[in-house]
Specification:
The protein is built from one helix and four strands. It has one helix spanning about 10-30; strands at about 35, 50-55, 60-70, 75-85.
Length: about 90
């Protein structure tokens, strides 16, 4: 006895496999970092979210990373650190 997928024509099976592969590739791609010019431009920081701030406060070749570190009764508490700049400077 053949399963329901095996009863489909070869073209339909290939379309299903291709759609599944594209969906998995979209999920596996790395997230792009969000750049802002000032910390004041970050309107709502979520827990675990990371935003790169290019305000010149870090040494050359580095950029400030502001991340939602922990929850407090008043909201998300941000953590700040300098991380290496990846790629060319964004404007």
């Amino acid at each position: 006895m053949l399963g329901p997928v095996m009863m489909l024509p070869l073209c339909a099976r290939l379309c299903h496999v291709t759609a599944l592969a594209l969906a998995l590739a979209a999920l596996a791609r790395p997230a792009h970092a969000q750049y802002v010019g000032r910390e004041q431009d970050i309107v709502s920081l979520r827990l675990g979210q990371r935003v790169l701030v290019d305000d010149g406060t870090c040494p050359a070749g580095e950029v400030k990373e502001v991340s939602g570190a922990k929850m407090s009764p008043t909201g998300v508490v941000p953590a700040r650190r300098c991380v290496p700049r990846l790629g060319p400077k964004k404007k």
